[in-house]
Each structure stands twice: as structure tokens, then as C-alpha cells.
Amino acid sequence: MPPSRLASNETGFWAAAQNDPIVRAIVDAISAGRLRAGTKLGEEELGALFGLGRTRVRQALRALSFAGLVRLEPNRGAFVTSPSFEEAEAVYAARRLIESETVREATRHCTANDIRRLRTHCQAQEAARADQPRYIRLLAEFHLLIAEIGGNVVLSELLAQLLPRTALMQALYQPAGEGGGACPTDHHMEIVGLMAQGDEVGAASSMTTHLTRNLRALAITEEPSPPSDLTSALLL
């Protein structure tokens, strides 16, 4: 397995979120709770706010749409996605199938250095709690890191496509004051401990339980939320 290819596939969307100013601003605003579900992302308004042409704006919106964070409606424009409970169930069901296998493979292949990397990553998650956009990004990266250790490129690619959607759900529907309740770091530490013991079955069971708890922690509502003011939400 070529490591460079895996790293590229794992971090593709998150790299775009850092390299494209529009994508980065929208992802950070969603993660911080400033940009609510259903808010319209007007091309002209975004272009004026960032001083960029319509082509660049459309590229950013397409990237966000591919990641599942924005929906594009013909003749209406782009809107922050409003995931339903049924969609959340489907996405988390797919993650349970994928990650029960990636954590098994990671447990079989992990070295002492891999375990140290995972534990260091968990410490970074705890340290980032006050920075919600970074915190949510680190929670997702932890799951990608396990997939990297497992070494299955195809499963890593599939997981990388699903993680932005669950990150959106955590940002939009995690109850205020939960402090990371939709993907708590202590669950991550439990998984790492089982991996360190070489317990494939236990690690897979813990991962499945973890993802099920994540879904149940989301306070998903079908009630439409009032749209955000785009300029204020993007801190521009």
C-alpha cells in the first residue's frame, strides 16, 4: 500500500477546507454553530464577501456539496444541508460496517508507535475542546488514523466520504453544553486500549457501540431553523 496515496485520499476534503477560503470559512462556521441548517449560500453574496469570481464560488460550493455539507437546488441555489434522522441512521449504519472492519485490521497491524500516535491524538482532541471547528475536525481525523493503520485504502476512501457528513450532524444537532457528547474522547481512549491489548473483537464491538452512541447523542429535529446572517456567520 503506497502511504502517500492513502494520506491523500484520507485528507482530501479536510485539505480543501484549509486551502480554499470559502470552503474553510463555511466549514468553520458550521462547526462553530454560527451557520445553521437551511441557510442560503448565495453565489453573488459569497463572491462579494471574499472578492472572488463566480467560478471560484461555484467550485467551492460543489466541493461542499460532494462532501454532503451543502445541497444544490436547480434555479434556487445552494443551502446548508439539513440532514434528516433517516439520513443520519443510514450514514452511521455505513460507518459501523466500515469501521468495525478498519479497527479489526488496525488492531492486527498496529505497532507500539501506532498506539502512541493514537493516544497523542486523543490528548490533542481534549486540548482542542474550546476550539469547536478544530475539535470536530480532530474527532474525524482519529477515525481516519485508525483506517490508515489498518491499511485498507478502499475502506479509507469510503470512510473519508462519510466523515464530513457526520461532522455536519454533530455541529448542527449536538445539544448545547454537551462538550463533545456526540463523539467523546474517552470512547476513543477505550478503543485504543483494546487495540493495544490486541483484542480485535473487543475493539470492533467498542467501535460499533461508540458509533451507535454518537447517533443517539444527536438531537435531530425536523423543525426548520431560522437562517443565519451570512456575513456574521462567516465572521467577515
How does the SSE layout of this entry go?
Blueprint: H1 3-19, H2 21-31, H3 43-50, H4 54-66, E1 70-73, E2 77-80, H5 85-109, H6 112-127, H7 132-150, H8 153-173, H9 185-196, H10 200-216, H11 230-233
Antiparallel strand pairs: 1-2
InterPro entries: GntR_C, TF_FadR/GntR_C, Tscrpt_reg_HTH_GntR, WH-like_DNA-bd_sf, WH_DNA-bd_sf
Pfam families: FCD (PF07729), GntR (PF00392)
Organism: Arboricoccus pini
CATH class of the largest domain: Mainly Alpha
| Structural domain count | 2
Order of helices and strands: HHHHEEHHHHHHH
Question: Using only CA atoms, what is the Rg?
Answer: 18 Å
Shape: elongated
Order of strands across the main sheet = 1-2
Helix proportion = 55-70%
Largest sheet: 2 strands, antiparallel
- Total number of β-strand segments? 2
- Using the 3D structure, state the CATH architecture of the largest domain: Up-down Bundle
- The overall pLDDT, averaged over residues, is 87
Query: What gap, in angstroms, lies between the N and C termini?
Result: 43 Å
Going by helix content, strand content and strand pairing, the class is mainly alpha
InterPro entries: GntR_C, TF_FadR/GntR_C, Tscrpt_reg_HTH_GntR, WH-like_DNA-bd_sf, WH_DNA-bd_sf
GO molecular function: DNA binding; DNA-binding transcription factor activity
Pfam family, one: FCD
Keywords: DNA-binding, Transcription, Transcription regulation
